[in-house]
Amino acid sequence: MIGRVAGLVSYKSDDHLLIDVRGVGYVVFCSDRTLAALPGPGEAAALFTDLMVREDLLQLYGFPTLVEKEWFRLLLSVQGIGAKAALAILGALGPDGVSRAIALGDWNAIKAARGIGPKTAQRVVNELKDKAPAVMAMGAGQPEPAPVIEEAGEPPAPAATPAPKAAPKPNASAQSEALSALSNLGYAPGEAASAVAQAGSDDPGADTATLIRAALRLLAPAG
After folding, report:
1. Nearest-5° angle of CA 88, CA 94, CA 97?
2. Structural domains of the chain ordered from first start
3. Which residues of the chain register pLDDT less than 70?
């Protein structure tokens, strides 16, 4: 599995680019938005990648952040959404826009992507509304990835898993990340904080994804 490529851009096309990694060229397909943000030929670039394997085809798809890569994988789980359609949705809305559209049930925003019809857009919202909070939580408080730091790593001692189990106190870190995610979706600070606080009170040991899911349910009637 090729999870990341970093090297010099050899050329950029309408839907892909070639990255030279120490003499080996990797063709990486990207969304319009990602291609526009990448540097030109001869300059350095790095992308997280997802390798798709089919009968007689291997294709790499590239993303500037791990969150966008996870959205790509999640979109592919929807019936009728292939790689091209997933990239079109991400290119039109970006990962934050996709999060917002699904959280608010705004299938018209999804439909704005090239080649996506109303039925497919509704299917995306309906099938991903319960799965989206996990990806939203992944990006909360981490707008830009830091691969070097992640690779260096920290000792597993301060992992978040044992803490909620050991103490029945509210998970402050998860609540902060959930609040950040809801703010990114466009909710007012007051209503977002109230919903997260209520969700945290109902389930003090909840992780970020669970808090986001519960808070969105609380906000739905008012939204």
Report:
1. 110
2. 4-63 (2.40.50.140), 66-129 (1.10.150.20), 133-140+169-223 (1.10.8)
3. 139-172, 189-190, 221-223
